[in-house]
Amino acid sequence: MTIRLSRRSLMQGSVALVALAPLRGWAEDKPLELGFVYWETKTDAFVQMAHGGEAVAVLDPRVHVKTAAPDSGDPQKQVALFGPIAQTQTDGIVLQSLASGPLTRPVMDAIAAGIPVVAIDAPPPAGSGVGLFITADNIGLGAQLAEKVLAMVPADAKGSVIIGNTGVGVPPLDMRVQGMVKRIGELRPDLKIVGPVATNGISTSSAEVFAAWDGLLSANPDAVAVLAPSAADATAWGLLGSRKGFNLPAGGFDLEAGNLQAVKDGHAAYIVSPGHWLAGYIATRALANARLTGEPLIQGLLLVPGEFVTKDNVDAVIARQSSPESVAAALAPLGDDVLAHPQAHIVGPWPPK
User: Fold this and answer.
1) CA 31, 299, 328: angle at the middle one, nearest 5?
2) Residue 202, pLDDT above cutoff 90
3) Which of 166, 221, 234, 335 could bridge across to 259 with cysteines, CB 3.0–4.6 Å?
4) What is the distance in angstroms between the CA of the first residue and the CA of the last residue of the chain?
């Protein structure tokens, strides 16, 4: 992937370079070589993670980041990309995979060769030796979203809450659904939960997701709210709102342009960002810091903060998301603060004991 950010544009955006660390064991005339292997190149969430990693190289001239991903999610294709990355990016690799099992041996071999590996978003291969996993509190964010949406449903309302999901079986999405279902049961056991229902169709095209939600709402006329842990659903709610008058309390995930527009137009009350850019930035910056300072790489399960988007802040978020430079200008300082106080964000060991 071509890095579109420039150091000059970021500095003009008032992002200061990360303070130069002591250079123990590092040759000043040779940049650190870091790798970033991710799931696929078409989905905004994955691209944002990669942009977070790339921003480290743009902000710090001592670091070079090489990214690699297949055009469509395929663990065997990731295996084929991981090997060459491990040959050249020997100072550390960030791995984001939704089906990491086939990567077990390549990751173990890289770690045995002295290349640290950090996993983000979804768990690394079991038993591979990865000791730092950076992700969002997906269960907690799903529960918080359900609570906020339910607060918009009258206390005496009867009916159903529909949960749609374009990625049934995807670990982070399933965890968000788990949080949603648990909180609905705690707060409103009188409401029926419909789902999670797969809303992706064959290709997860916008037309298929729209049709899935149109059908769900027709089949469940008693719906009092809708929720989704995945990206394309809120965009469909926006289209349903403009075409068919959809106006139920609604909450979804991810910062795709269509989702943000649905919030702006009043067709989705909440959109949650699970910190995709931050996860990529923090993982890459952590690898760079460890190599540059000679200090051990931090270890454990580190949770990045989430962000709730509403009509009150959607314009600011849209402006921030308008370019890689503006995203980095806003979020890199937050990522640096997380790494300055890692124990405030590490909730346990990895792998779990």
Assistant:
1) 50
2) no
3) 234
4) 37
In 10 A of CB 315, how many CB atoms?
12
Residue 159: how many CB atoms within 10 A of its CB? 16
Q: What tokens were used for 236?
A: 């469909």
Give the strands of the sheet with 223-227, arranged side by side.
Answer: 192-198, 160-165, 223-227, 250-253, 270-273, 307-309
Residue 28 has pLDDT above 80, yes or no: no
Q: Is the pLDDT of residue 8 over 80?
A: no
Average pLDDT over residues 198-208: 92
Residue 30: the pLDDT is: 85
Torsion of the alpha carbons at 311, 46, 225 and 150, rounded to the nearest 10: -70
Q: Do domains 7-130+275-305+323-348 and 138-273 have the same CATH topology?
A: yes
Q: Which residues pair with 348 in a beta bridge?
A: 301
| Residues 6 or more apart whose Cβ sits within 8 Å of residue 99 | 73, 75
Listed in sequence order, the residues at least 6 apart from 103 whose beta carbon sits closer than 8 Å to its beta carbon are 75, 78, 79, 82, 95, 97, 124, 125, 128
Tell me the CATH number for domain 7-130+275-305+323-348.
3.40.50.2300
The mean predicted confidence, pLDDT, of the chain is 92
Does the 138-273 domain belong in CATH 3.40.50.720? no
Contact 166, 204 (CB under 8 A): yes
6 pLDDT exceeds 90? no
271-to-179, 207, 237, 258 alpha-carbon distances in Å? 15, 21, 12, 11
If DSSP codes are grouped into helix, strand and coil, which group holds residue 65? strand
Identify whether the C-beta of residue 65 lies closer than 8 Å to the C-beta of residue 34. Answer: yes
Q: Which of 18-32, 41-55, 153-167, 210-224 has the lowest mean pLDDT?
A: 18-32
CA 4/CA 6 separation, integer angstroms = 7
Instruction: Please tell me the predicted confidence (pLDDT) of residue 261.
Output: 97
